[in-house]
Write a structure and sequence with these properties.
By secondary structure, this protein is mainly α. The protein has three domains: 103 residues, no CATH class; 122 residues, no CATH class; 172 residues, no CATH class. 76% of the residues lie in helices and 1% in strands. The radius of gyration is 68 Å and the shape is rod-shaped. The N terminus and C terminus are likely disordered. This is 65-kDa microtubule-associated protein 5. It is found in: Cytoplasm, Cytoskeleton. Belongs to the MAP65/ASE1 family.
Length: 567
């Protein structure tokens, strides 16, 4: 028994030795048995207390193990529920520690899974918070601390919904970033056209828009987009205003150049301005073409030309007056140039009229004169043709009166050709006159005013010509009647007195040139004096045969001829 004590409990040997040593000490002291008994009872009670505490501690440890096991089971169920999974595990049989050891791997696996799921949620929520902060324009979000993740719902469905939300936000961010970049490009383009510092302008909108390194995230907030939109709108309005200003200045330049007769070399210095006159806002994209210095230089040039224009305006006014008179003269319209110049001089000297307005008024008059000239041109051309035909008719009459027109002198063949053309043209005078009269009447009915040609109504001229032609025809008719009567009288005398007609000379030997021509005009223009010569020749030949018997009759014939010639 003593040999087994050390193996069973080494402390028991120690307690026994201590108890023997205590007995020895008591014997030496002479402690009474009652005191000894009391001390031993105390020692026994203290030992019981120690064992009781150990038992209580062990019982509590057991309870803790049960609690741990229950908590582990509950945690497994909670994690499985949060992850949306079903927990399949069994405690098994055995001691509590064996059961705990069996459940620990399952719990550890679920905890790892939960941590990974929470990490995924945290990363996604961090991105969501960051993008939302960028869209809201709240500056840089606080990403030093992880966002709070609700561990009650860590299911795959919830994770998918969060990822879908993140994808929508990322798409929104991409769209906004593209919009911001598009606005920035528009600002750069407009600033280049207007010669404005785009970096300074964009920095006023948001400092992140001008980061040259690109490390700074560009602001995509609603406020930034709104301010960029407003900036582009203001730049476009400025572009429109500057372009309109250059349009006006360019047109003014062109007008002044035309008025002043500016050389092409001088105009080249402002070709970049005049080339914009017909350009719309969207077509203008050349760098610096709408810069303020371009507008200022153009304004100075316009001001300089206006000063020159004021000094030369009087000359330009009279130049326009000459142009106006030339237009009127070109279509044979009546214009009193001297009176018009006197009026212009009085207006300019009075200083009560704006020379630009006066010049503009004269431009309007020139435009109206051109319209009037255009409406008269066809008739004027026909009038000139008609007048030319009349002149040719007069020339032809004079030509056919010339007895030497067939001589072999210089220019005779040219006159023959001209006479042939003149006869052809004279034959068309009736149709020309008729057509011209119809045209003039139609024009006067449309305009409501008479058509004047060199201050004379052209219809009156046409009527006078028609009357003149009728008088000529009447004169010719009377001449033919006179001739018929003379021939009839000669025939009666011949029958009465037995006179023989003298042989007629050959046609080529006749001294009357007009009988050789054979044209209607020549016959119309034959004079009674020519016929009187032929008749007198006949009388002279017959006088030797009839002596004084017919003296009285032959005296009457020249008398009739003289009357006919006078008519």
């Amino acid at each position: 028994m003593a040999s087994m004590l050390p193996t069973l409990s080494p402390s028991r040997t120690t307690c026994a030795s201590l108890l023997r040593e205590l007995q020895i000490l008591w014997d030496e002291i002479g402690e009474s048995d009652s005191d000894r008994e009391k001390t031993l009872l105390q020692l026994e009670q203290e030992c019981l207390d120690i064992y009781r505490k150990r038992v209580e501690k062990t019982r509590k440890y057991k309870a803790d193990l049960h609690q741990s096991l229950a908590e582990a089971e509950a945690e497994i169920n909670n994690i499985a529920s949060a992850l949306g999974e079903h927990a399949f595990f069994s405690r098994g049989r055995g001691t509590l520690k064996e059961q705990i050891s069996a459940i620990k791997p399952i719990l550890a696996e679920l905890r790892t899974k939960k941590q990974e799921r929470v990490k995924e949620f945290s990363e996604i929520q961090t991105q969501v918070v960051q993008i939302c902060a960028e869209i809201a324009g709240n500056g840089e979000p606080n990403i030093s601390s992880d966002p709070q993740v609700s561990e009650s719902d860590l299911t795959v469905k919830k994770l998918g919904e969060l990822m879908s939300h993140l994808q929508e936000l990322q798409n929104e961010k991409i769209f906004r970033l593209l919009k911001v970049n598009s606005h920035i490009d528009a600002v750069h383009e407009l600033s280049a056209v207007l010669s404005i510092d785009s970096s300074k302008t964009l920095n006023e909108v948001h400092y992140s828009l001008t980061d040259p390194s690109g490390s700074q995230l560009k602001s995509i907030s609603n406020n930034t987009l709104a301010r960029l939109t407003g900036l582009i709108h203001s730049l476009r309005q400025e572009k429109q205003q500057r372009l309109q200003k250059l349009h006006n200045l360019g047109r003014t330049l062109v007008e002044l150049w035309n008025l002043m007769g500016t050389s092409v070399d001088e105009q080249k210095g402002f070709e970049h301005v005049t080339s914009l006159i017909s350009s719309s806002v969207n077509e203008v994209s050349r760098q610096g073409c709408l810069a303020l210095d371009v507008i200022e230089k153009t304004e100075l040039e316009v001001e300089r030309l206006n000063v020159l224009k004021a000094t030369k305006m009087k000359e330009l006014v009279f130049k326009r007056q000459n142009e106006l008179e030339e237009i009127y003269r070109g279509v044979h319209m009546d214009v009193d140039g001297d009176a018009a110049r006197q009026i212009l001089i009085s207006l300019i000297d009075s200083g009560n009229v704006d020379l630009s307005d006066l010049l503009s008024n004269m431009e309007d008059q020139i435009a109206k004169a051109k319209d009037q000239a255009l409406s008269r041109k066809d008739i004027v051309d026909k009038v000139e043709k008609w007048r030319y035909a009349i002149e040719e008719e007069k020339w032809l009459e004079e030509y056919e009166r010339d007895e030497n027109r067939y001589s072999a002198g210089r220019g005779a063949h040219k006159n023959l050709k001209r006479a042939e053309k003149a006869r052809n043209l004279v034959s068309k005078i009736p149709s020309i006159s008729e057509n011209l009269t119809a045209k003039v009447k139609a024009w006067e009915m449309e305009k409501g005013i008479p058509f004047l040609y060199d201050k004379e109504p052209i219809l009156c001229s046409l009527e006078e010509y028609i009357v003149l032609c009728q008088e000529r025809q009447e004169e010719k008719r009377k001449f033919r009647e006179q001739k018929r009567l003379q021939e009839q009288l000669a025939a009666e005398q011949e029958a009465r007195f037995g006179l023989r007609p003298t042989p007629k000379k050959p046609l080529g030997q006749s001294t009357n040139v007009n009988t050789m021509v054979g044209t209607p005009t020549g016959r119309r223009l034959a004079t009674p004096s020519g016929r009187r010569g032929i008749s007198a020749g006949k009388e002279h030949k017959e006088s030797g045969r009839v002596n004084n018997i017919v003296t009285e009759n032959y005296v009457a014939l020249p008398k009739d001829d003289s009357v006919s010639q006078a008519s």
